[in-house]
Design a protein that fits this description.
Layout: H1 2-13, H2 20-33, H3 38-41, E1 43-44, H4 46-64, E2 88-89, H5 91-96
Antiparallel strand pairs: 1-2
Amino acid sequence: MQQDYEYFFDYFVKEKTPAKEQAAEAYGESTEAGGYGLKTTGVFSNADLEANKQGLQFYRDLDANPNMTFDIANYINSNWNEESNPSFYEASVGKTV
């Protein structure tokens, strides 16, 4: 949820760019390729990116309706499943996986 809030704040509250959704998704991909993923763990997780995208949607929904009733079922989908939405691995990690 922390990364998702960063997406929301940086790209929707501060309005860094007019192409907000694309910029937020590009930022997410860069973090997954960097310190939150590939460079530190050897894993680029597509499922994590989907979870972050849905977390961003949660914050957008909350911003639009602060009194909303939260239901996690509105945000979870099959792309959170790393079996059906596989990760990419650095060679040294991929051998083990």
